[in-house]
Amino acid sequence: MASIHRDTSKKTKNWFCRFYDPEGFRRNRSTGTESNKVADMICGGMERASTLARQGKLSNEKALKLIRETRERIEESHGKLPADSAERVLKGTVEEFVKIAGGELAAYTTIAWLDAWLKGHTAATKGTLKEYQRIVELFLKFLGTRADRLLTTLQPVQIEQFKAYLSGRVAPSTVNKSIKVLKAAFSNAVAKRQLEFSPAEHVTSVVSDEDFLRRPFTLDEITKLLKAADAEWKTMILVGFYTGLRLRDCANLNWEKVDLLGGLIDVTPMKTRRNPTSNGTAKKLLIPIADPLLKHLNTLAGDKPDAPICPIFNGKSASWLSGQFYEVMVTAGLVEKRDSKKKGTGKGRDTRRNTNPISFHSLRYNTASAMRSAGVSEAISMDLLGHETEAVHRNYGKTEIQAKRDAVNKLPDISI
Length: 416
Prior knowledge:
By secondary structure, the protein is mainly α. It has 3 domains: 98 residues, no CATH class; 99 residues, CATH 1.10.150.130; 182 residues, hpI Integrase, Chain A, CATH 1.10.443. It contains 18 helices and 6 strands. The strands form 2 sheets. It has a 3-stranded antiparallel sheet with strand order 1-2-3, with helices on one face. It starts with a strand and ends in an 8-residue tail after the last helix.
């Protein structure tokens, strides 16, 4: 049984903890405090770590939990400074016992973990990594000095506060993307046994009205867009309308993915590459090329299969592409020109913008809406757009190419 005492042979009023270490030797270790109540809690933590190590159960995860819980009890009853000092003392002993048990204590601060997590994304695209870095930097700035504390001290309330902080400044979709990135980072910490639970696990998404505000373009608006567009944007618009592909998927489409003779586009959307199915594979789409789009692509085809269809836009970030498409809509007279900062309003680039009901994504809505109007079945429509659910997959199986070809050829001819 562990006990605390003062060593009269030493010139200190600090309490010492007397206990047996994992190898059965009697230890006499300073608690670093003159408070007998704080010393008793530290001593209890040392004994608990020793017992777990003796039983072969002192994993990195349990060691970090023991340090965190002891610190929290001391901070609750005696304040932050005694808790900080107790954490340092207890950590040294626990780290020693983890090594005796055959392991090694790896304790990250929040900033160190997020930095390590970002560096581990070697397969991520440059644009994706840049977006992750932006979100992480924003979160660390929000945390302030708390970012330098142990990762195990991070609590759900801090993620909720960050969500509330963002909600008044940026669009709901941006808030939700930020929470999603933090969930991925802290879930990885759980998998690597740095956390028992993710502090972001039960933080819910912001309910967004954006999807209710979004709408497809009218055919008149599409005609104006095509007239205002240069050659590459015209290709982007036609591909977006006739395939339902998202903005970056259209921009990154290469000729090797386009079979003009067979009339098929073979593509794996970026969204499904980031979110593979349960068996680890990303969903590939086989999209029949509608006649108007096929006619247009035939006028562009070259002899380099690895060349992009739209060289200017290939590899560009989603934000850059969105901004450029907005300018096309401005030229077409569909939206008002944006000011980076309106005089007298105090609103700049970092403030939340009003949601615009039309964007490049509206073309995807056009595809779905036109198919519904043409009487295309939901199963075929969902398969073409890459929205196939597990239930649809079970009920319908793989959609036949001919059925999808018939569906895309029911879309109206918007080419001019």
